[in-house]
Amino acid sequence: MSFIWGSMRATASPETATPGALATFLGRCADMGCSQIDLADIYGNGHSEALVGEALSSSAELRDRFSLIAKSAVVFASEGNGATAHHYRNDAQHLEDSLSTSLRRLRTEAVDIFLVHRPDYLLNFDELATALERMVQSGKVRQVGVSNFPCERLKTLGSHLSLPIAHHQLEFSVLETSCLDNGLLDDAQSAKRAVSAWSPLGGGRFFDPGFAPADRVRTVLEQIADDGSEDGIAGAALAWVGHHPSAPVPILGGTQIERMERQVAKMTATRFDNESWYAVLEASRNQPVP
């Protein structure tokens, strides 16, 4: 079981905040089986993309070990961009302009996957489909996908596209399990669509003392993992996500490489059967399945 490294916090940690440090960090990630980097134009206000681009350009060997996932559609209210309200944009001009900017920051001519980061309530499906097809036809993007799309919007976009939606990035963890019931993971299996899981440890809530769902889940996972350490339990939680037949790949946004190595080792070593997997689900939801 592999993982994707998420670059959202890349500029905030001494272990990854300079091109040299990040190159060393990424090399160790690759040694653990990581071969994809998750990016977005809003991470670090664009500085994360630039940092990753500079780190990868320092070594052709390192660059060849990774594929790149780019995302756009979210606009934060900021003096820098003139926006006064947080909003989404799925229009062709915004997405294509953002892609060009991302390619420049990343120092590359193409990204492997481009994802529409969030669905825009005002999206025009024909316009969005045409923009995504144009990205692929131009050679700037190899595959397209979405992030955080509800099932019906995903299917509607697919009906307008002449190429496959290859990837869906969604929230999935032992603390956020709605994708088990809303059809998204079933859709991924049916369409043979790759799935990546953001916030696979619950966005920090997993280790929040006194947060009842996390307390319950940690107790069960500790028994399954036979490891009471935080990293051991976290690794088991990641393995639980990856056990689903749609094969979700967790996005790990950590910057402490030794801790990540411990978590990934436990993730790789932990095995679930139906009974143990459902025991975690029951602890998370605090009720047995029907």
Word description of this protein:
The protein has 290 residues and is of the alpha/beta class. The chain contains eleven helices and ten strands. The strands form two sheets. An eight-stranded parallel β-barrel has the order 1-2-3-6-7-8-9-10, surrounded by four helices. A two-stranded antiparallel sheet has the order 4-5. Helix 5 packs across helix 6 and helix 9 crosses helix 10. The longest helix is centred in the middle third of the chain and has 15 residues. The relative contact order is 0.12.
CATH architecture of the domain at 4-171: Alpha-Beta Barrel
The rounded Rg comes to 19 Å
Spatially, the strands of the biggest sheet line up as 1-2-3-6-7-8-9-10
Q: How many DSSP helices?
A: 11
> What letter string, H or E per element, gives the SSE order?
EHEHHEEEHEHEHEHEHHEHH
Determine the mean pLDDT. 96
Span of the ends, CA to CA: 30 Å
Q: What global shape is seen?
A: globular
Largest sheet: 8 strands, parallel, barrel
CATH top level class name of the domain at 4-171: Alpha Beta
Instruction: Give the uncertain stretches in residue-range form.
Output: none
Secondary structure class reads alpha/beta
In the CATH hierarchy, the third-tier topology of the domain at 4-171 is known as TIM Barrel
> How many runs of DSSP E, i.e. beta strands?
10
Task: Give a quick precis of the structure.
This protein has 290 residues and is of the alpha/beta class. It contains eleven helices and ten strands. The chain has an eight-stranded parallel β-barrel with strand order 1-2-3-6-7-8-9-10, surrounded by four helices. A two-stranded antiparallel ribbon has the order 4-5.
